Each structure stands twice: as structure tokens, then as C-alpha cells.
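Changelog note: in this version the structure field was regenerated for every chain. One regenerated record is shown below for reference.
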Amino acid sequence: MDLYEHQARELLAGHGILVPRAEITDSPCEARAIARRLGGPAVVKAQVRAGGRGKAGGVRFAADPAEAELMTRRILGTDIKGHPVRTVMLAQPVDIEAEFYVAYVLDRTRGQFVAVLSTEGGTEIEEVAAARPEAVIRVPVDPTEGVTPAKAAGIVRAAGLPARAADVLVRLWQVLTREDALLVEVNPLALTAQGRLTALDAKVTLDDNARFRQTRWGERDAAHDDPLEASAAARGLTYVKLDGEVGVIGNGAGLVMSTLDVIAGCGARPANFLDIGGGASARVMSDGLSVVLSDPDVEAVLVNVFGGITACDAVAGGIVRALDAVRPTKPIVVRLDGNNAARGHAVLDDRAHPLVHRATTMDDAARRAAHLANTT
């Protein structure tokens, strides 16, 4: 579960990390009063579970209370990556001398957490890593050792951050471990003109499996979930929205994860993770394809199924069912292998849809999907 920024700030503050004074509201008139309490100027920030708020106009500076009310009116009710803005947070501005990026993230391929740091905070870390890989350092963390003051000092020294940032790293590790988080990110961690390190923005993702220990955050707020994820959840599908252009459907988490890696190796980016499960029916396959094809970022879809419990002819039947219901405009690459694969191929051949391309291996399927996505 992703926390809203104001919730993430609350966690950080509870562990002794400095954050600017701030309040949340859903009322432009109240925003004016909040700005007065903050001293006049304020940063008005949309509260949605999505990145890229600044580029979407969801973060605005207000020079005085009247402008804070105006900016709040402009932001409330807008849509940021499919998330309607219902509340804003007004934060006290700070004088910034330098901005840094610090985070702990679960690296599933390594099976451990990794500290990620950069002296170039304030921008998306993916952009920094792509343009200047040397500006981002990644340090694996031994979970049995954790992040001690000595470990933190070594990490910030290697990253070129101020020595005092080591204390922030130790406290962030406490947030991660004590709050059952999968990700804690501060971007930017600002060095102020007064010489303080302050978290200006924070993102925290909690482990849904530990929800019973984190009851203070209440039930999942489905109204603020990604619309595609909400649609998939309503159909009982395991779906995660990603930032790429190749939609991915597979049966089994391991196979889907491998498919994501192979697509990346072919020069494309996965648009989602969608596991239809080990015994998927035609209806489940149809529902899954409908969800993926409704993503406007998807330029091609890769269906990768190895039939065990899942029968490939049922999968093919679901694909045909979705073709008739959704009427896709994007190409679909299908790789079927295993239980009833020959029957599945026959079902697709009988339908003979011009946008459906068959592949015999996962590598071939990924290459075709990547090529089609990049040329569509």
C-alpha cells in the first residue's frame, strides 16, 4: 500500500526526521487560513498516490494566503495519471542550498534491500540514472546487520552526501523495518540555509502482507488506487501498473517476472505485471487482456503461458473472447506451450485475427513484442 505524502511525512517525523510544517485540506477557503498559520507563503501539493505531480501541475508555490487559496482551487478536482485530486497539503517553504536523493528499496532479484543515494535530488531518479549512472550509488544492505551508524557513515561518504546525512539514513532504516515498508524514499532531502537536513517530499510503500500490524492506516482506499489496478482487483487479478509500453500477461509470478526481464533485454519496457494464475479460465484470460488493452500506454501485448494446470486452449479461448469484446487496435504476441498447446494454437488459427502474432519461444515472443511496440 502506497501512503499519501502527508502520511509518509508523519512516519518520518515520528522517527525523528525533520519535515517542514504542513497541513492538509480539501477546502480552498481553509487553505488560505492554513497559509496564514504557516506564515504566508506556502507550497500547495496535490495528495495522490502517483509520481510526476510537479510536471502535471499538482505542485505550486503560493506567495501569500490569497494565492494559496487560488492555487488550491486550481489543483483540487484535477486528474494526475488517473488519480483525482481530492485533498492538498500546504507546506511551509524552506531556503534550499542543496538537494539529495536517499531511499531504501526492496531489490527482489537480490532478495535484499538496497540503499540508493544521489547528490542530484529533486528530479526523478530514473532520469538521473539514465543520463549520469555514476551519479547514483546503490549499496546492498545485509538484513541481519541493518544500517548501523558506521554503515550509514560509509554509505553517505561513498555517495558524496554530507556526513550528517548518516543519521537520516539510520532513521530511514528504522522507518523501513519498524513500519513494514518495502520502499522509503526522500526526494529531495534538502540542506537548508540554516544547515539542517529536511525531508521535503517522501514516498513510503507498506507491505500489504503486514497490514494486520499497520492498522492505523485503515482499510485500503480503493477510490485512490490506480484505475487499472482497481479494475483488475475487481476481477480478482494480480496486476501492477508499470511505466513501459509492452503489456505482459502470464500464468505464475515467476514466469511473469522472467518475462519482464526478457522484454527489458530486448530494448523495451514492460507496461505492467499481470499474473492470471495457475488455473486460469477463458474468462480470466479475457478479463486480463481487457485490462491490459485498456491502458493507453500499451503499444503491444505479450501473452506468455506455459500450460500446466492452465490449459492453453482455455487461454486461447479467452483471447478470442477478448478480441470480440474489446476490439483491440494494438498487436498481441502469444506464446503458448505445455498442456493443450496444439489445441490452443488451433483456436487462434481458426480466429485468424490480423493483430495476433504467434511465437514459439519466450525469447522470440519478447523480441516480436518489443519490435511491435517500438514501431507501432
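Spot check on this record: Residues 10 and 19 are 9 Å apart (CA to CA). The first strand starts at residue 22 and ends at 25.
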